[in-house]
Design brief:
Chain A is built from twelve helices and no strands. Chain A is mainly alpha-helical. In chain B, helix 9 packs across helix 10. The radius of gyration of chain B is 24 Å and the shape is globular. The chains are: A mainly alpha, B mainly alpha. Chains A and B meet through helix 6, helix 7, helix 10 and helix 12 of A and helix 1, helix 6, helix 7, helix 10 and helix 11 of B.
Chain lengths: 312, 319
């Protein structure tokens, strides 16, 4: 299977659009099967593939934490406190005798879960704003963009600390406020792509055929900006994980005893890390690997899905 | 240029007003109004009249829009309110703390530029050589490693290996520059790591783009020495996107100052913010938020102005 098959291209999409308007039933274009995608990634973007592997390992461990983690995240074993890695505790234990491997796995589950939720809110909002703003244009676009300007100018982490500090942090409030705070940046990117898609002949054709705006946006604009949304989702996940970890580190993450990768690096753990530095190593290594993986994977996706944007 | 600068400043006014609106309503709605009563009446019995008087005194009576206008109006006269807890004027405290944060942020920015631009240039000039690979790998790592983790490691291993810990007693830059720099150089460097990662990669890709242009070949062909080609022709033409990305790094630097002031016990605006959030100290929360917001607004104006001064096309097309 060639690298370009199944990807949106101007001409193919035009005929597809015409067909969609004329023929009662729309033929589905050939799509890349997931496995082909992985093969292309491994062959053409080795770094992206490494990122993909890291994400699969961490993601699966996080998703199946109840099965994978050898101990519970709050399970204390006071006779085995501050154990170095090895033996019954692969990553060692902390000052309360809790298994560090289990805490890191559960911590990754919580961090990834919150980040995923926040990313979905951010992308949905960003896409909605960008599509309406760019598709309708005119004064509506101008006013919306002024609001986005202000939104972008807000000091994100500062406002997050303020809100979470005052309202109290829990997974739901974290997802909502982090999602809202990260929406405007990517709406700019999506908007610029919608602006160019809007001028494509297949949109004009669909309009000439009398298609309603809502249908055009859903059936023709959205599929043609999907690749931008997908790769920016990967990059956003990388930065959102850092934000979640920073908030946890400052004490505004999920409340204890739930493990938070950021919170594991601060607080009362700090006094024990002098005796057991491994406590300070594992959470940081996991955060770094995941952020790294999302970034190289996102870059690889961008290069593969949209050759025009390569290297930008 | 002056006309363009003025235009840019006028355009920032709605942003600043929007900023004050967002901060006021977010914070004011989130913080319960009895914070002031709790703060000032810690031991005394509940006294409705006294509560009323306190709220009046702190500008918390009347409807929310009235309170907003009162708050914004007082700020225009330089009055940023009073702390519920210390009873002291917020602006006086801010004046003491702003230099600490600015020093940390500016220092990190300078370190970023001094490292990222030469390394990025070198990396592009020797594309696909060993130094290039090292620089690229390092840049990706620097970007992905959370700064607060490095800070934790420095604290942990500093105390294990060197028996070192950050000093609690902060020295001002102008009182004792040596002692001050000894305290702040570590947080400055760590704060700079992540922007160094982002910027090095960008400088490299930009320079690689420009290096293949015809005017660069011409400059080389006419016998200009390499250094001149790099600084006069290549770097200058890659600067616009580089400045954009520096602008995009600023919110991260600002957020970083909050985290690193906390870790390295520096008495800056970030610590003030964290303390005030813990205590629901309304006017301090709003003033610190506004400070960081204004910092970003001003930084964005600076970015736009430096575009215009580098690229004459921008200032000519708009005015």
């Amino acid at each position: 299977m060639g690298p370009d098959s199944g990807l949106p291209s101007g001409d193919g999409a035009t005929t597809a659009a015409l067909r969609a308007g004329l023929a009662p039933k729309r033929e589905r274009p050939a799509v890349l099967k997931p496995w082909d995608g992985v093969r292309v990634l491994a062959r053409r973007k080795p770094m992206g593939f490494v990122g993909f592997l890291i994400l699969m390992i961490v993601g699966l461990a996080a998703a199946f934490a109840p099965i994978v983690a050898p101990y519970g995240y709050a399970e204390t074993d006071l006779t085995n406190r501050l154990q170095p890695p090895g033996g019954a505790h692969l990553f060692g234990t902390d000052n309360l005798g809790r298994d560090l491997l289990s805490r890191v796995i559960w911590g990754a589950r919580i961090s990834l879960g919150i980040s995923l939720g926040a990313m979905i809110i951010a992308k949905t909002l960003a896409t909605a704003i960008a599509m309406f703003s760019a598709y309708y244009g005119g004064w509506f676009d101008k006013i919306t963009q002024r609001f986005v300007d202000i939104w972008i100018a807000l000091p994100t982490l500062i406002i997050l600390i303020t809100l979470l500090g005052v309202l109290g942090a829990n997974p739901v409030s974290l997802i909502i406020v982090i999602g809202l705070a990260n929406a405007p940046q990517s709406s700019r990117l999506v908007r610029s792509v919608v602006l160019s898609v809007r001028e494509e002949p297949y949109i004009e054709a669909a309009r000439a055929l009398g298609m309603r705006d809502s249908r055009i946006m859903l059936l023709h604009v959205l599929p043609n900006i999907a690749h931008i949304i997908i790769y920016s989702a990967s990059v956003t996940l990388g930065s959102v994980i850092l934000i979640v970890a920073s908030l946890g580190f400052l004490g505004y993450g999920v409340p204890p005893p739930h493990p938070d990768l950021g919170a594991m690096l601060s607080g009362d753990g700090l006094t024990y890390m002098r005796r057991m530095p491994w406590m300070a190593l594992w959470p940081g290594i996991v955060i770094t690997l995941v952020v790294f993986a999302f970034n190289v994977f996102g870059d690889a996706l961008r290069d593969l899905l949209d050759p025009r944007m390569r290297g930008s | 240029m002056a006309k363009y600068a003025l235009q840019r400043l006028i355009l920032a006014i709605p942003t600043v007003i929007g900023l004050t609106l967002v901060i006021f309503f977010l914070v004011r709605v989130a913080v319960p109004v009895d914070a002031v009563d709790i703060a000032s009446a810690a031991s005394e019995s509940v006294d409705v009249e006294r509560e009323e008087r306190l709220r009046e005194e702190y500008g918390l009576s009347g409807s929310l829009p009235e309170q907003y206008i009162g708050w914004a109006g007082r700020m225009l006269t330089g009055d940023f309110g009073t702390s519920f807890f210390t009873g002291r004027s917020v602006i006086d405290e801010m004046k003491r703390r702003i230099p600490v944060s600015l020093e940390l942020g500016t220092g990190a920015l300078i370190i970023t530029l001094v490292v990222a631009i030469p390394v990025g240039l070198m990396s592009a000039a020797r594309q696909d050589s060993l130094p290039d690979y090292i620089a690229r790998g390092g840049a990706i790592m620097f970007y992905a490693i959370p700064g607060f983790w490095i800070a934790t490691l420095v604290l942990v291993f500093g105390s294990i290996l060197l028996n070192w810990a950050p000093t609690i007693d902060y020295q001002n830059l102008w009182d004792d520059p040596v002692a001050n720099l000894k305290q702040v150089w570590i947080p400055m460097v760590i704060l700079g790591l992540s922007p160094i990662g982002t910027l090095t990669r960008l400088v490299r890709t930009q320079v690689l783009e420009v290096i293949r242009q015809d005017y660069v070949r011409t400059a080389r062909a006419k016998g200009l020495d390499t250094r001149r080609v790099y600084f006069r022709h290549i770097l200058r033409n890659s600067l616009l996107p580089i400045i954009t990305v520096i602008g995009l790094q600023l919110p991260r630097l600002v957020a970083g100052t909050v985290i690193f002031e906390q870790i390295f016990v520096l008495p800056g605006v970030g610590r003030y913010l964290l303390d005030s959030v813990q205590r629901l100290d309304l006017y301090v929360i709003m003033a610190t938020n506004l400070f960081f917001g204004m910092l970003l607004v001003l930084a964005n104006i600076a970015v736009d102005l430096s575009y215009a001064s580098i690229d004459p096309r921008i200032r000519l097309s708009r005015s």
